[in-house]
Write a structure and sequence with these properties.
The complex is a heterodimer of chains A (about 300) and B (about 280).
Chain A lengths: L8 E3 L2 E3 L3 E3 L22 E6 L12 E4 L2 E4 L8 H8 L10 E5 L4 H12 L6 E5 L3 E2 L5 E2 L4 H14 L3 E5 L7 H10 L4 E4 L4 E2 L2 E2 L4 E2 L7 E4 L4 H14 L4 E4 L5 H10 L3 E4 L2 H4 L3 H15 L14
Parallel strand pairs in A: 3-18, 4-7, 7-8, 8-11, 11-12, 12-17, 17-18
Antiparallel strand pairs in A: 1-2, 5-6, 6-16, 9-10, 13-16, 14-15
Chain B lengths: L1 E6 L2 E7 L12 E4 L11 E4 L2 E5 L2 E9 L3 H7 L9 E5 L11 E7 L3 H14 L4 E8 L8 H5 L3 E6 L6 E2 L2 H10 L8 E5 L2 H13 L3 E5 L15 E4 L16 E2 L6 E4 L6 E3 L5 H5 L1
Parallel strand pairs in B: 8-9, 8-12, 9-10, 10-11, 12-13
Antiparallel strand pairs in B: 1-2, 2-6, 3-4, 3-7, 5-6, 13-17, 14-16, 15-16
Helix pairs in contact in B: 4-5
The chains are: A alpha/beta (about 300), B alpha/beta (about 280).
Amino acid sequence: MSGSPDLSVQIGGLRLKNPVMPASGTFGYGEEYADFLDLNRLGAVIVKTITLKPRTGSYPHRSTEVASGFLASIGLQNVGVEHFIKEKLPYFAGMDVPLIVNIGGQSLEEYVELASIMNTQPRVDALELNISCPNVSKGGIHFGTDPGVTRELVTQVRGVTEKTVIVKLTPMVSDIRLFAEICQEAGADGLSLINAPLGMSVDVKTRRSKLGRNMKGGLTGPAIKPLALYLVHQVSKSVDIPVIGIGGISSLEDALEFFIVGASAVQVGTWNFINPRITTDIIEGLQEYLIENKMRVFRELVGTLL
Amino acid sequence: MENKNISPGFYRMALDISANSRLPVPGQFYNVRCGETKDPLLRRPFSMHRLTKEKGSVRLEILYRVVGKGTEWLSGRKKGETLDTIGPLGNGFLMRGGSQDVVLVARGIGIAPLYALGDALRIENPKVHIHILMGARYAQRVFYKEELKKLGEVYLYTDDGSIGYHGRAPQLLLHLLETNRLPRGLDLYACGPIPMMKELAQIAERFSCSGQVALETHMGCGFGACLSCAIPLKPEALKTCAAWQKPALQWSEDGSTVYSLICKDGPIYDILEVHWDEWLA
C-alpha cells in the first residue's frame, strides 16, 4: 500500500489525526496563531488554562530569559469560563480540529464545576486538568503534589464528564510514577507531562528577583527537555494510558526522542514563540521520517527505545 | 541587509522589506530572531526607526545598542545576509493631524521609534516645530546628534552634565516649559526608562500636554499568545479608538484592575493611561 503514513492516535474517546499539538499556555485561545498556520492541521488545539472567574494574572515583570529557557509567571491570566464560552469558543465553530480545554481551579469544587460546564459544550472534545494550581483550602499546596488530593480530584472530575480527561502532571514531586498510577486508577484517559518546573533568576545589581514581586516562575524551553524526556520515559513504563510528552521541544528530532521513549503524542510549548509554525513543521517532518524509515503507522515508533 | 556602526555600541540596520505585504507605521515593531542556536532563545523586539522607499524597494531601518547576547549577534551580521523577523506588530502612534509644536523626549536608544514618528509628522505638516530632548548618562552615550538636527531642534542632556543640560529629561522639559521656551499644550511623545516616563506623565498633566509613550518590556512571543508583557493601565483613563482597539485587555471581575499586553494593545499608549506606580511597584 502506498500513500501517507497513518499518524493518528487515540486518547480515550478522542481520535487525533496526528500526534502534534501546542501546549496550553503557549497558544493563547488558538486564534492568536491563525495568521501563521491552519489550525485544522494540528492534532488538537489546547487553549490556555481556563478558570471559573476571569483572572488578571501575575504582576508585571512576568518573564525573563535564562540559558536556553524562558522563566515566566503569568498567574493563569484568562478571561474566565463564561467569557470563554461566549467569545472564544465560537471561533472554533467551523473547524474540525479537536479542541482540548485546559482547566484550573483553586478548590476541588471549582474543577468539578468547570468540568461540568465544559461537559455541556459540544465543541469541547477533551479536558486537560492543570493540577499545578495552589489548593487554597490546603494552604496553597499544589493539588498535583499531594497523592490523596490528586486521586480525589481526578475521580470527581471523571464523575461529571464523559469527555476525554487528560491530567497534566507537575515534575515537582519525588516520584512522578506514583501520581501517574493514581490518575490512571482514578479514570484519566491520558497523561501529559511535564508541566513547567519552578525556577528563579536574580538581578545581582538590584538583588531582586528578575520576576519582581512574583519571585518565581515556570521554567520552559529547551533547558527542561532532558528532565521532561526522562520523566516521560518513567511514566510511560508505569501506566497503560497514553502519555503526551511536553518539555522543550523545538524540532522534529526533539519530538522523535519523546515518541521513542514512549510518548504517544507531544505538545510543543515555548518554541511556538520563536517559530509559530513549529507544530506544522514537525507534522510534515514526522511524515517524511516515517516514510524514510518504512513505517506505515506512527504508533509503531512509540516506545521503541532499545 | 546592511549593518552600520553609528557610534560606539550603537548600530543601525537596514532591511529590504519590499517583499512584505504589510508596511509598518511609526511605533510598530518587529520581533527578530537574534541567533541560530537556543541561547539566546527568544526573539528580540525592535521598533521601526525609519522607512525609506526608493525605486520600488522598501527599506526598514532599526536602531539598536549592543546590550547582550542577542544584540551582540545582530551587530555581527553582514551585508546581504537575511534576518528572520515577524512584523509589523503592535498598534503605532496616533497621528493627530495639524500639530504645531511637538516634543520628542528620548533617553538613549529610546530615540528609535520617536525618529520614525518625527519623520511622519514632518511629512504630514512641513511647518511643524519638532523639539527633541535627547540624552543619556554621560556624553559618550549620547549618539545621533547630527541625524536629529535634520529632524528638528535638539536639546541634549546628560546625568553628569558632560554634555548639554546637567540633569534628566523630565527636569529639562520642566525647565523649558517653565521658561516658556516650549509652549504649553504641545504634543509630547516619549520613549525611555519607566521612571522617566512616569515623571513626564506628571509634567504632561500639569502643562496640559497630550502625550504618548512607546513602551518596552520582556516579551515571549510578540503576538499576544504568551501574556508575559502585561502592564497595568488605569481603568478610568483608558484610551481606545479605531487604531487603538486594545484587543488584549484583561479586566478583573470587579473592574478595578485592567492589564494590557504591550505587544498587542501597545507598544504605544497614552501617557496618562499607564498605571506607572503599579508597574514600578
